Q: What sequence folds into this?
């Protein structure tokens, strides 16, 4: 899980590097599915109308996101989250930040969100990172593992990735188990990955995978 700040400039810089150092890639012209299906969850591109459901997911365990993701201690309003959904729709189209809502198929409930954070994206390689959160009431059901696995498949099969990373706070044991279940290996540990509100430095673990092969058994339909 990771907290991300970004600008459109990040995308332009990455596209520029790709055109200078390797095959020219224009992310906007890459077809990326708006929905991805498994037997238990749907990954849905954010758009207007999903704000209230996402807000409920955000508020269900919000203190965990403050601790591990360095989110603001002041939670967002429903209106703010609805506005974000509309902005995130635009981000998706521009490929400046690719996010998906995680929806439980049985209940149609939004249970979390996953993404390719812009600061971990390098179109030159290409290389991507995966972030995710799951609402407290829907944890321990395998949704985060399923969503992350689907994102890995997307990165390798649609975006021609050569490497995918997941960053985890070392104290967030549940989150750190997810990349291990998917065949990622711990590549390095860094103290000071991002600050915490208590003034201490987080110990950031980076897990990496270089092939989709360990995940070919995972259900993933687009």
A:
């Amino acid at each position: 899980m990771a907290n991300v700040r970004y600008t459109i400039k990040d995308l332009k810089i990455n596209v520029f590097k790709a055109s200078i150092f390797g095959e020219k890639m224009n992310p906007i012209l890459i077809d990326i599915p708006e929905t991805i299906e498994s037997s238990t969850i749907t990954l849905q591109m954010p758009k207007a109308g999903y704000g209230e459901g996402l807000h409920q997911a955000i508020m269900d365990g919000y203190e965990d996101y403050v601790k591990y993701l360095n989110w603001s201690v002041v939670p967002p309003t429903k209106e703010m989250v609805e506005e974000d959904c509309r902005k995130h729709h635009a981000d998706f189209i521009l490929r400046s930040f690719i996010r998906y809502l995680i929806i439980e198929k049985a209940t149609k409930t939004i249970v979390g969100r996953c993404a390719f954070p812009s600061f971990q994206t390098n179109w030159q390689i290409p290389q991507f990172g995966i972030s995710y959160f799951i609402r407290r009431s829907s944890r321990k059901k395998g949704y985060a593992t399923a969503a992350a696995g689907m994102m890995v498949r997307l990165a390798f099969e649609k975006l021609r990735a050569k490497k995918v990373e997941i960053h985890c706070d070392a104290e967030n044991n549940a989150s750190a188990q997810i990349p291990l279940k998917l065949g990622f290996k711990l590549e390095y540990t860094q103290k000071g990955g991002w600050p915490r509100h208590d003034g201490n430095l987080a110990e950031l673990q980076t897990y990496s995978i270089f092939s989709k092969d360990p995940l070919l058994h995972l259900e993933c339909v687009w």
